[in-house]
Design goal:
alpha+beta; two-stranded antiparallel sheet; 11 helices; 19% strand; elongated; binds 3,4-dihydroxyphenylalanine
Amino acid sequence: MAYTVPKLKDFSPAALDKAVASLLAALEKESAAVRNDDERKDFRNRWLARKDGVLTKVNDLWLKAAPKESKREVGQRVNQLKAEVEQKVESALKGRMPQASDSAIDISLPGVHRPIGAEHPIIRTMNEIIFVFRNLGYSVAEGPVIETDYYNFEALNFPPNHPARDTQDTLFLANQELKPTRERLLLRTHTSPVQIRTMEKLKPPLRILVPGKVHRNDPPDASHSPMFHQVEGLAVDMNITFGDLKGTLDHAMKALFGSDVKTSFRPSFFPFTEPSAEMFVSCFICGGSGRRGTDPCRPCKQTGWIEILGCGMVDPNVFEFVKDNGYDPEKISGFAFGMGVDRIAMLKYGLDDLQLFFQGDVRFLEQFK
Ligand code: DAH
């Protein structure tokens, strides 16, 4: 309810104080309730208008009505009150008008737009691969990108002069010459060293998947990069056979590329597997025909097959390095495989330039949201 100035019977300082306090409280309440321009105008008029404004009423009902002996005192209080009310009304009005200097938050402004990022297509592809194997009971293991010669080569049964140790392929860290060969640091050329690292820590049986970055001294072009990604797999248990390897990988390829792909295993060589194989999947771009309409199919180079990974049965020589942790090659066996993620991602997304993944161009990456 709007405030009305009361008539005073008692003009003592104490009674005046009380009257002033309730007037100011009413002012506070009314000023807080003002919402728009019309209400602002009404508010101002109610308190300051010459004719019938609250201050005018105060003048009439408190000052003019005061008995002679209180006039001086009441006059002073009323003058004080006037100044205070005027100032409060004006500042209440000002505070409620948007000012250029006003630091209050304008909730009608649009918010700050923070664009949501997208999962990088390589990470996404890695996660898809991991997902498939996780359902088969594999867990994820990781290892360092800066690796020792021991884990990258020696414990994986690379003979001393194997070409993969050659500076052509391997990026060695500088100033390692004074160290024994096996302690020399390099950028790992594959994720296979994590096989040994994990077998040192965990006893068999073991089923792991190892995603990660690897480096080789390859100049960048449409299909090469000095940094790329691999996913390694390792399964060790009793009585693991090449049949398990084939069945596992065949299932994984169907899960990744569609149920109609076929797999083909061709003899190969890796120092850490025996026997070793390269695994191909029938081309899921051309359906294995080698042609797309009248054009040759480029991804499979018209062969109808795409090479996806290297694999094989873990070489007993590798187990010798971790024999003390329960990996006795007389008792256990295992298979391993390693695939290049970048190439798989290129095939999945139909890209013809590997470099697109690493240039950080938002226009490219945005398409994977
Ligand atoms: N490490 C191999 C490479 O980078 C790939 C590979 C082949 C991994 C056979 C394996 C395997 O685990 O059994 O070329």
